[in-house]
Design a protein that fits this description.
The chain is an alpha/beta fold. The protein is built from eleven helices and twelve strands. The strands form three sheets. A five-stranded parallel β-sheet has the order 2-1-10-11-12, with helices on both faces. It has a five-stranded mixed β-sheet with strand order 3-7-6-4-5. The radius of gyration is 20 Å and the shape is globular. It starts with 17 loop residues before the first helix and ends in an 11-residue tail after the last helix.
Length: about 325
């Protein structure tokens, strides 16, 4: 597989489609702050729109510290203790799937026939359905915790809510306020990249070095320049980065801790909760995706830059 030339030249995988050359994103460097295994779909969407995606992993995920509590919760789920399983992120699905694999079974086998499943966004829904799990409830409008609460049926019911160790109480408090009996369990830990190899949720990258070599393969289809924070800092100072994408509130916190001041690099939020967190950190949110998907992020970026005249490429 050919390696990309450099962060200053053509990036392998950038679309050669003439339509992409007319895009408002053509040639603009956009920083993705996800880990390599989670960046593929957004990188492909950006490339198809003519942008040059770069990778700076800032957050990663580890197994929950209290595995016993998670085991007990899943035993109760499999035993019919709960009426609802609420899934708030793709990473939650990965954590639950890993626990099912430890038990020698599939995730769907942990769900009795009477348990209903709710989720927040389309990505979580797709991955659950790919596991053979029917999603009974998901918001069509605001794809967020607030959006799910808006469509929640209310009334009594026993809910299992596995989530990150740093998740706020908005969803659990909201469900309880609608009459549900909510059991919250930590499914995974959010940590600075890279996670400890022995604790990382994704075993395929567990042996990766602290900073993988530039040209790390993304989803088996595309090689991207992978930056270290110091290099990203230099590019921001030189005006070479058009935008940085935060796909979660925790990513916003790491961007604030690592990359501020952003100068002319625009901060793009995947959704309202990420934008709100950025606001509390003093970051200016240039655009928020209307849908928390790669296409939604690309649409937000395209709208943002549509009225901006492209500048001559800077040498970095």
């Amino acid at each position: 597989m050919p390696r990309p030339e450099s962060v200053d030249g053509h990036v392998a995988g950038v679309s050669g489609d003439p339509a992409s050359r007319d895009s408002a994103l053509h040639g603009r460097k956009v920083l993705i702050t996800r880990s390599p295994d989670r960046a593929g779909s957004l990188a492909r969407a950006l490339s198809a729109a003519g942008a040059e995606p770069l990778l700076l992993p800032l957050i990663d995920f580890e197994r929950a510290a209290d595995q016993q509590a998670l085991e007990v919760a899943l035993d109760a789920l499999a035993g019919g203790r709960y009426d609802w399983l609420v899934v708030s992120s793709i990473t939650t699905v990965r954590a639950l799937k890993a626990k099912a694999a430890e038990r020698g079974t599939e995730l769907s086998a942990l769900l009795p026939s009477g348990v209903r499943v709710a989720t927040i966004g389309p990505s979580s829904r797709r991955i659950l359905e790919a596991e053979g799990i029917r999603v009974d409830l998901a918001p069509e409008g605001s794809q967020s915790a607030a959006g799910l609460l808006e469509v929640w049926p209310g009334g009594p019911g026993r809910v299992l809510l596995p989530q990150a160790d740093i998740a706020d109480s908005l969803l659990s408090d909201g469900l309880a306020g609608k009459g549900a009996e909510v059991a919250v369990v930590t499914a995974y830990r959010t940590v600075d990249f890279p996670a400890r190899p022995e604790e990382r949720l994704d075993t395929e990258l567990a042996k990766a070095a602290a900073w993988p070599a530039p040209g790390t393969d993304v989803a088996g289809e595309q090689e991207l320049p992978l930056l270290e924070p110091a290099r990203a800092r230099t590019m921001i100072d030189d005006g070479a980065l058009a935008a940085v994408v935060a796909a979660s509130p925790s990513a916003a916190r790491r961007i604030a801790a690592t990359l501020v001041p952003l100068r002319d690099c625009r901060f793009i939020a995947i959704g309202r909760s990420t934008a709100a967190e950025a606001g509390t950190l003093g970051l200016t949110v240039a655009a928020t995706a209307k849908e928390p998907t790669p296409d939604g992020i690309v649409a937000a970026l395209t709208e943002l830059f549509a009225s901006v005249q492209p500048s001559a490429p800077e040498r970095t």
